[in-house]
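Folded chain entry —
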Amino acid sequence: MPSDPSCWLWPDWPVAAGIRAVVTTRQGPGRSLPPFDRFNLGLASGDDLATVQAHRASLVPELALPSAPHWLQQVHGRVVHRVEGPAGTALLPEADAAVTSQKGQVLAILTADCLPVLLASRDGRAIGVAHAGWRGLADGVLEASVQAMGCPAGEVIAWLGPCIGAASYEVGDEVREAFLAVDAAAVQAFLATRPGHWQCDLTVLARQRLHAAGIGSLYGGGFDTRRDPRFYSYRGDSGKTGRFASLLWLE
């Protein structure tokens, strides 16, 4: 058990025994200086690199992880990385999702307003994580992640983690049009604010995509990283912010 359980968010979803998940917060046991708070995990955020690396390394003993997390070079795309062994020291794979059926391998996604999605098969044999900002959602990162798990979509459970809420997230016409071009029902995720601008609900879009992919068991949601002081927010911190992690593994 971590030294201070309040520093972490524990997903509440009915997964099989042996599946573990946790979301870090900016209130973890670290030492980043303002504006990064105490526990920034983003190497490209502008924080001191040695400090961020120390935070990442501390996750293993602090959370009793079975191994070092598999970090990704996230690029807002739909590429899924298949994890088949321990994390290496080479360049990070360029991907926005990861899946595995190997026990003891910790999958990791970094966010600060984008939507982290955790996936697990009902039988506990496969797991996946996805980084779903609007570009990744529109490009099909969730569908690609489910397919890469190698089990029927109807046997997959999903948890939607902390992301920016609709009331805090204004986008332009190009974002709305990208989703409506694929599914007219996406109109439900947008609310007009001013000419050419819309409030955008990432969780509604994700639920629509997951349902269309065949997943009926969806949990989580209800967060707003811009208003919740536990989480880093790119928009809330005017672009100068850290990253928190969503971690998932098979014991």
About this structure: The chain has five helices and 13 strands. The domain at 5-250 is CATH 3.60.140.10 (CNF1/YfiH-like putative cysteine hydrolases).
